[in-house]
Amino acid sequence: MKMAEKLRRSENTLSATRNLIRESVERLKLSPSVYEYLKVPMRFVEVAIPVEMDDGSTRVFTGYRSQHNNVLGPFKGGIRFHPEASPDEVKALSMWMTLKCALVGVPFGGGKGAVVCDPRQMSLKEKERVSRGYVRAMGNVLGPETDIPAPDVYTDAQVMAWMADEHTIIMQKPSFGVVTGKPLPVGGCVGREEATSRGCVFAAREAARALNIPLKSCRIAIQGAGNVGGYAALLLQEEGCTIVAITDSRGGLYNPAGMDARAVMAHKKRTGSLAGFPGADAITNAELFRLDCDILIPAALENQITGDNAAGVKAKIVVEGANGPTTPDGDRILKEKNVLLVPDILANSGGVTVSYFEWVQNNYGFRWDAETVNKRLEDKMVEAFRMVYSFTSQNCANLDMRSGAYMYAIQRLAEAMHYRGWL
Ligand code: NAD
After folding, report:
1. pTM of model > 0.90
2. Is any atom of ligand 1 closer than 6 Å to the C-beta of 97?
3. Which residue's C-alpha comes closest to atom 19 of ligand 1?
4. For 187, which DSSP code?
């Protein structure tokens, strides 16, 4: 996508998010001040990150951190490395984090960060220098009690480990709680890597249950074969679902009879791409959205289901693994088609939930086992889904779960603002 088009879309995403927040405040008959607090980040930081490249040259990358709102607790949210990251995109992503944490009931505010770079064109050492440079440039903007990043697009547990190490050097004391999503030996939490996807699976299961469809009979199409999309494929296969399609940035695979998700992900790991996997046809990302399936999981980037392609969606359920994958026009069309859409701030909140578990364990020196983590995640996700679903059924037309989720989260934020004396 051209940079100008991407910037225009990010600006639209930010204004669409603001519109939804304003509408929710009005429908809930809350003080207009609630919207005033939520329409902008409390702080937005832009930094220059000088990095020595492997060829000896120096490049200066731009880094962002948006600290949207901390009425519920420290700012929390991922860092993405992406060549098209923009301030408006990062601001919108941080707003969704505020809403997500409120919705799922974890005591964090919303934050998000990015470095404008293409890690696919960098060596491991260059990526390490960018990661450490980001933490140094941000100085005391980040901290285990103030603002806690996590992985996002094109960042992973290794990036988090470098960031935790750099923060530890700066603070001159172990500071692992400054980021979550770390590898296990340096304070990571078992189950964090697949937590967002596991949360999506619980959300998909609850949505299917609401429509009286057995999850294991569902045919699944997934956009994105990274952390969220890849694990979603593996975990849904474990639930007995049929994975009919999966794509990544270069295209994808389709087999109406289903594919072995394990073999697909092993092929992607081995070759770096989905292309060439035997036993499936090649498809484009555009084709993915038109496929015959029961559950569609956009798990890549924003603005993928739009006014141009939503009419072609055949799925009965859309579970937004990615943040902001559906535009307002796409949303309206899916509603008209009676597609049950589980919105991002609910569907992908499993990641921040287990990040919260990791942070608690870091702070107290606990080590929970996989069974404990997964059960606590399931409890949180199921409770959040059922609360939002029942709130939506009572308050919103056409089972519009996005409006229901926004209203439910904003009600909680407004209560906290009231008690803190902000209103
Ligand atoms: P990732 O980097 O692990 O994977 C991203 C995937 O998207 C890759 O397979 C990539 O090839 C694909 N992709 C990129 N551009 C694409 C395009 N134009 N068309 C199709 N596919 C494309 O990232 P991730 O962590 O899986 O994040 C994916 C989404 O989930 C993002 O919206 C992110 O904000 C959201 N999310 C992630 C987490 C988490 O814990 N990682 C938590 C909540 C939400």
Report:
1. yes
2. no
3. 249
4. T
